């Protein structure tokens, strides 16, 4: 479970990015975070990754209080989180297989485990036949599938996606969303930041809307809304 208790963030320049945010995300939930530019969405994701510290308040992820986490635990903590970005961030000089395998090598996985898990993951994202392709030989949707495979290969408990379809057309965007939904059904908690109202409308998931650093609505699948 992810819990934010009265979380605020004021950047050095005096920008109030988050103002007294309270929210919880249960294990296995699928949540969209929407809101106009500058409303604090990326700041929130960066806090979950422990890249940005709150100015006040408490963040607890799977019973771990991030504010009290010793520095040496941070790399291990981050392995519980998978991250997907708008611009894919693949290694351009490595093929699809190597891009995914690399994430396993970094954590010291055995060659045997890599040889088992990478093909299985590529199958899941529908890229088995393109494992030797390089990123520039793939469509945007395919590149994002590789990025998703890489984010999932170490079996994170939570997948954070920051505008994962920002560079994709409507069809590819929905395909990526369906893939994220499948991943979620297998048990991973999924949090997606998006600007796309169409995606949010079609997916019928929980939607947290932010505005100027606050949560202005939190709408469940069933459709009820409450003000924070
Ligand atoms: N490193 C920083 N230093 C100072 N101010 C920052 C920093 N990062 C973000 N901000 C400010 O914090 C506020 C929230 O920014 P944030 O990036 O979280 O918004 P966002 O909702 O993700 O926006 P976008 O949709 O454009 O990505 C903005 O006013 C922004 O200018």
From TrEMBL:
PROSITE patterns assigned to the protein according to its UniProt record, in alphabetical order: ABC_TRANSPORTER_1, ABC_TRANSPORTER_2
Domain ABC transporter, chain residue ranges per copy: 2-228
What Gene3D superfamilies is this protein classified in?
Answer: P-loop containing nucleotide triphosphate hydrolases
One Gene Ontology molecular-function label:
transmembrane transporter activity
Task: Please give the InterPro entries that the UniProt record associates with this protein.
Answer: AAA+_ATPase, ABC_transporter-like_ATP-bd, ABC_transporter-like_CS, ABC_transpr_LolD-like, Cell_div_FtsE, P-loop_NTPase
Q: Name one GO cellular component term.
A: plasma membrane
Highest taxon listed in the record's lineage: Bacteria
Cell membrane: is it a keyword of this entry?
yes
Which topology term describes how it sits in the membrane?
A: Peripheral membrane protein
Biological process GO annotation list?
cell division
Q: What are the subcellular locations of this protein?
A: Cell membrane
Q: Which residues form a coiled coil?
A: none
Query: Which UniProt keywords are present, listed alphabetically?
Result: ATP-binding, Cell cycle, Cell division, Cell membrane, Membrane, Nucleotide-binding
Main localization, broad class: membrane
| Record's subunit section | Homodimer. Forms a membrane-associated complex with FtsX.
PANTHER family assigned to the protein according to its UniProt record, in alphabetical order? CELL DIVISION ATP-BINDING PROTEIN FTSE, IMPORT ATP-BINDING PROTEIN
The UniProt entry, under NCBIfam families, shows: FtsE
Family under the similarity heading: Belongs to the ABC transporter superfamily.
> Its function?
Part of the ABC transporter FtsEX involved in cellular division.
- The name under which this protein is listed is Cell division ATP-binding protein FtsE
From which organism does this entry originate? Lacrimispora amygdalina
Its taxonomic placement starts with: Bacteria, Bacillati, Bacillota, Clostridia, Lachnospirales
Originating gene:
ftsE
């Amino acid at each position: 479970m992810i819990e934010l208790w009265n979380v605020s963030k004021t950047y050095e320049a005096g920008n109030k990015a988050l103002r007294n945010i309270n929210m919880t995300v249960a294990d296995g939930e699928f949540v969209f975070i929407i809101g106009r530019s500058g409303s604090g969405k990326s700041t929130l994701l960066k806090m979950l990754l422990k890249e940005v510290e709150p100015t006040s308040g408490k963040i607890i992820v799977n019973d771990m209080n991030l504010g009290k986490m010793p520095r040496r635990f941070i790399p291990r903590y981050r392995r519980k989180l998978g991250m997907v970005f708008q611009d894919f961030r693949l290694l351009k000089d490595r093929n699809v297989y190597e891009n995914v395998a690399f994430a396993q090598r970094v954590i010291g996985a055995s060659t045997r485990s890599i040889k088992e898990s990478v093909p299985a993951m590529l199958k899941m994202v529908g890229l088995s036949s393109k494992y030797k392709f390089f990123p520039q030989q793939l469509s945007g949707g395919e590149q994002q599938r590789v990025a998703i495979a890489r984010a999932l290969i170490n079996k994170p408990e939570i997948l954070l996606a920051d505008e994962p379809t920002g560079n994709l057309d409507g069809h590819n965007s929905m395909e990526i969303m369906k893939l994220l939904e499948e991943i979620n059904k297998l048990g991973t908690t999924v949090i997606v930041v998006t600007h796309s109202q169409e995606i949010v409308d079609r997916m019928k998931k929980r939607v947290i809307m932010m505005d100027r650093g606050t949560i202005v609505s939190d709408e469940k699948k069933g459709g009820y809304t409450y003000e924070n």
